[in-house]
Predict the structure.
Amino acid sequence: MTVALEARAKAKQTLALTSNYAAAYAAKAADVDVIAVYPITPQTTIVEKISEFVDEGELRAQLIHVESEHSAMSAVVGAAAAGARTFTATSSQGLELMHEVLHIASGLRLPIVMAVPARALSAPISIHGDYSDVMNTRDTGWITLIAASAQEVYDSIIQAYRIAESVLLPVMVAYDGFLMSHTTEAVELNDEEEVRKWLPRRLDRPNLLTPEKPITMGAFAMPDYYYEIKYQVQEALLGSLDKVVEADREYGKAFGRSYGIVQSYRLEDADYIVVAYGGASWGNAREAVDEARRRGIKAGALRLRVWRPYPAEEVAKALAGVKAFAVVDRAIAFGAPAGGPVYIDTVTALRMRGIDTPGLSVIHGIGQRSMFVEDFVKVFEMLKDGERNKTVYMGLKL
Amino acid sequence: MKVVYRAIWDLPVEELFASGHRACAGCGPAIAMRWITKAAGPNTIVVNATGCMEVTTTQYPETAWMLPYLHVAFENAAAAASGIEAAIRTLSAKGLWRAGKTNVIVIAGDGGTYDIGLQALSGMLERGHHVLYILYDNEAYMNTGIQRSGATPKYAWTTTTPVGKAIRGKVQEKKDIMGIVMAHRVPYAATATIANLLDMTNKIKTALEYTEEGPTFLHILAPCPPGWRYPEELTVEMARLAVETGYFPLYEYDHGKVRLNPPTSQIAADPKRKKPLRDWLKLQGRFAHLTDAEIAELEREVAANLAYLSALAKAFS
Amino acid sequence: MSLPRVHEISIGGIIAEPGSSRRNLTGGWRSLKPVLHDDRCIRCRICWLYCPEGTIKEIKGEFVVKGKKYQYKYEIDYDYCKGCGICAHECPVKAIEMVPEA
């Protein structure tokens, strides 16, 4: 091999990685300074991999072996406040335990990045995957991406630093617990030097804790001020969609891969659309589109890659004018007017634009109940048969 | 302890905790804040747990703090400080920390330390972060209006331990927080009060020096006029008497050695020099309901605690 | 006072001005006022030491009181003094007297 080819081969190596390992490699590429993680299934292999990187001297960072996820989020809040590039990861109960501090991370406008292999919530305890944990963080002010492949996990975490550090909001990158976190795929890794050039350090933000400029962070706000400070988070979060698009586009230019904020499959002439998120649902949905079309249904699928802020324009554009849509949710919004949390948002996004495409809320994959391609084909058949405006608990032994 | 300040005239003049804060008149913790910040100096980051000293000092858009200051929540000041300390270490190694050697200090009340923050404190101590954790102890949840905490003394009235027909005040004893900290084998831990300020400021200096090695801890008794129910001019007197009656012994845990500090060392050596506990109790409305028998019981517990600490000091000298 | 709009507030609700609590004059809380009798003051610094508000100001200079020369004198900053009376209680020579606010 020539020297140039060797250098390129070294720079762009492809490894067989789980999504969890891909997340760890991404954090390493981003040259994070402080990592605080507490073990929890299915997240644990991330912190194991990062521990290897740190102990082997491949990553110059302080890895804080915190005594809880609450302290994990608190420690990265402290570290980010002091100007460090930070990383953490958790699942399920761990994300619930962090919940209080999630609001504080966004309220203090700290660019923290977190990986979340999504998992069901107790009780009963389940170590298996669904998106109940992620959906419970809906109103915390975090930018939330949901990836559908190990490659996308890797790329999204690197993009997340670019987004977080420009918007000054924390970013969560979620993906299927087990179905992705523990599934090995081919992942092309970037040259780490190139990643670091793409993620230049920003040490000039106003919310930095340093004796050079003694500011007070985390002040006590009375009713005259609180609302405006919280509105800033809302404005930044809503405005972050452009930054997500920009980071994805720039990343594509630099590293050759980009994803957009929604992904579509055979939408052009579709009458019926299934909206999904996460790797397993997206894979099934696309297979089901092909099968439904073989059965004579004009089917299409749409994937949300960004959950917060909700990409309302893009979704509305895809769903306006079709005969009906369904959202397959892997979480239950207990007691809500429809069962699926993303379905509720999707209907709201349409109604806010005066679009009245009828929909179906489909709940599936709860506690990692097996989702089959045929189940998704059935969703298309139900839409074709005129099922509308209700919640279907698929895969449930009723 | 390292004696940096030999006399009152050696103490630093520069104020780093500004006037205009909203603590109650005669606030004991506010005295502690003045002297913590003075002794620590400007190259210090303060992490404050939710509590009186947080809400009264940082009411937006005004702050009493002249040091970089972070408040996150109630139970996690030690964890947030761990992150800051880790950040400074990595950023310094990467040439990205421009402020040089920087102290990281936690300031938390008794609720944020004995109770809700105990786990984060233990984690921080166990992991060996270079952080000085300062507990200002006013012996109840004063910020929310005087509810009992793990630091509230036995029989004390609080709004959640009222003096009723069936139960009269707090049933349980005050938790031995110093014992818990010492069990983590930290380089240094000590008690102090806002009355004994030379002792306190020297302990802060000592602790900060030892923080190079690992976590250090200070337990500062800081009386609260509305919570303890005494006239506000008596705040310093209440802290002084707490020491002179043996209720709050002054001592240090220094690399495994236990040392009683004056005047506790003199009281322990010569019990005749100890003032009766009644002198302290009778000034406080929270103890107004105590019977002679209850006072006698508390007096015995004070003596037992002094004997225990004396034995520790003798065994680990 | 007009309150700030969304974009007039610093990001994340930070307070960028250290010690800005000085804008909040707490002297109005007082019902009793400490009056320092300079002729009785022995310059022991104890009132300065214990004030929770940091309102005892140490003024440097040449001061002659009853034939004795001092390099300091003490003044109370009534803008912030809350009138707790710790200074008067701790003063070893009773040079500070608490009097009702007019």
